[in-house]
Amino acid sequence: MSRLAKHIYVDGVVQGVHYRESTREEAERLGITGWVKNLSDGRVEIKAEGEPEALEQFLVWLHHGPAHARVNQVAIQDHSLLGLNDFIVQR
After folding, report:
1. pTM assigned to the model
2. Domain membership flag for residue 88
């Protein structure tokens, strides 16, 4: 299968609740590459690349995140592949 890429914004209580690190762990479990970072407006931004089925599972997970997160909205856009090799937390 061919890899797909997504650009994602997650809104809600997603900062200070281990969301970025949990996102990295879930991405690695699913073989997703990319990055995650906090934004100054309280959202989390993610670029993710992977096989379609793995990306779908990842997107489902993003809608709830770790235990203390409260996700209000997940905005997803298609994105061009960047050829990323791992998944990192940007600081």
Report:
1. 0.95
2. no
Where in the sequence numbering do the catalytic residues fall?
A: 20, 38
| Domain housing 74 | 4-82
Whether 1 shows a pLDDT value over 90: the answer reads no
Q: How many structural domains does the chain have?
A: 1
Query: What is the per-residue DSSP string for the chain?
Result: ---EEEEEEEEEE-SSSSHHHHHHHHHHHHT-EEEEEE-TTS-EEEEEEE-HHHHHHHHHHHTT-STT-EEEEEEEEEE------SEEE--
